[in-house]
Design a protein that fits this description.
Layout lengths: L1 E5 L5 H15 L3 E6 L12 E2 H7 L10 E6 L3 E2 L12 E3 L5 E5 L10 H22 L30 H14 L2
Parallel strand pairs: 1-2, 1-4, 3-5, 4-7
Antiparallel strand pairs: 6-7
Helix pairs in contact: 1-3
């Protein structure tokens, strides 16, 4: 089961579309468990360390094999590496149970049907990406795959939220092994 908890306001129709996308991609039950309050403790500029926010996000009722996805509105950051500050669209406990994405890096939602649909596709793509990391999926070289890095210059303006054949088969194998 994939459980989604929002830490930022999200239109109910966007939540329904996200639930459907995750269910279709992973073949698992997916539900929105509710809205949680953003904990205190972010940086002065309103951003959050992704790892700290994932740890501070409220408890979500889940069983051992469940995956929990938090959706935040605040920009996320990660510790600087040898090449400087990495881009941070989200963060997942690789092979673990909790992940978080930020709405801050997504393009404007807009008001037209086309812009809303484009925004929903991008939201679904980012959610599939971090949930894929929860199922031990690595980044993929195929720019059409949702596991392709979000910061890649090869990522199109309206990326698809589906997995390539290799990543889909690997995730299905992991999900079959994890079922209790």
């Amino acid at each position: 089961m994939i459980r989604i908890a929002t830490l930022a306001p999200l239109d109910p129709t966007d939540t329904v579309a996200l639930v459907k996308s995750l269910r279709a991609t992973f073949g698992l039950g997916t539900e929105h468990v509710g809205d949680l309050r953003l904990p205190r403790g972010g940086a002065k500029d309103g951003s959050w360390d992704a790892i700290a926010l994932l740890g501070a996000a409220g408890p979500v009722l889940a069983v051992a094999d469940d995956k929990v996805l938090f959706i935040a509105g605040a920009p996320l950051t990660l510790a600087a590496g040898p090449l400087g500050d990495p881009p941070c669209w989200g963060f997942a406990q690789y092979g673990g149970g909790r992940a978080i994405i930020s709405l801050a890096n997504l393009p404007e939602r807009g008001v037209t049907e086309a812009s809303i649909e484009s925004w929903r596709r991008r939201l679904a793509r980012e959610a599939v990406h971090v949930v894929g990391h929860l199922w031990d999926l690595h980044h993929c070289y195929d720019a059409r795959c949702a596991m392709h890095p979000s910061w890649s210059p090869h990522l199109g303006p309206t990326p698809d939220s589906s997995l390539c054949t290799f990543c889909r088969e690997k995730s299905e194998r992991k999900i079959r092994l994890a079922k209790t």
